[in-house]
Amino acid sequence: MTDTKTTTHHKSHPLTIGVLALQGAYEAHAQTLQSLGAIARLIRTPDQLTGLDGLIMPGGESTTMLKFLEHNNFFEILSTFVKTTPTFGTCAGAILLATCVEHPAQKSLAALDITVERNAYGRQNDSTILKAPTKLPGGPLEMIFIRAPRITHTGPTVEVIATREGFPTLVRSGHLLAATFHPELSDDHRVHQLFLDLIHQKQAQPSQSS
């Protein structure tokens, strides 16, 4: 009876979640979403964003991802999309969501009020698996880090859900979620369930004009 179960799965109207399929482990994200009862749609062009309930931007190489997004006005369309639609960025996806990117600086969607340091843990930690306490119900969370970035600053609206060595690894602000690790490579699906719950919560809110 945990909080992760409070949102019921609507069998007749499953959520449709896009997974940005430019590079990275997008298939693993899709499989996890499907195991949780959602419809996963691989997104490679900006027109495919239409009709989504949410979007996952997976890991990979953020500068390479930016090159893909230069085509068909994709970056600008995605920048508008993430302002209103639930979006979850993992690893390179978290870098793209950040308002500030360092080491070195690079362009981003500037949607989530965090500062991210790229390749912060160096080559010696190319692949690290940790279990750490989390605000999510269900005990310690498995976190798989691969050339992970580090969140060095969070804004006042950002909730920290898990940490590594005192630095945030899983954060949420409104309809946006970001992780510096790879939850799609773990058998622990609580982070993806958190994202689906976040979408249901947003859809249940009365629409407000800003």
Q: Could you please describe the fold and organization of this structure?
A:
The chain has 210 residues and is α/β, with parallel strands linked by helices. It has a single domain, classed as Class I glutamine amidotransferase (GATase) domain (Rossmann fold). It is 24% helix and 30% strand. The strands form 3 sheets. A 7-stranded mixed sheet has the order 2-1-3-4-12-11-10. Strands 5-6-9 form a 3-stranded mixed sheet. Strands 7-8 form a two-stranded antiparallel sheet. β7 and β8 form a beta hairpin. The N terminus is likely disordered.
Helix-strand layout with pairing:
Blueprint: E1 16-20, H1 26-35, E2 39-43, E3 54-57, H2 62-69, H3 74-84, E4 87-90, H4 92-97, E5 98-102, E6 112-117, E7 127-132, E8 141-146, E9 150-154, E10 159-164, E11 167-173, E12 176-179, H5 190-204
Parallel strand pairs: 1-2, 1-3, 3-4, 4-12, 5-6
Antiparallel strand pairs: 6-9, 7-8, 10-11, 11-12
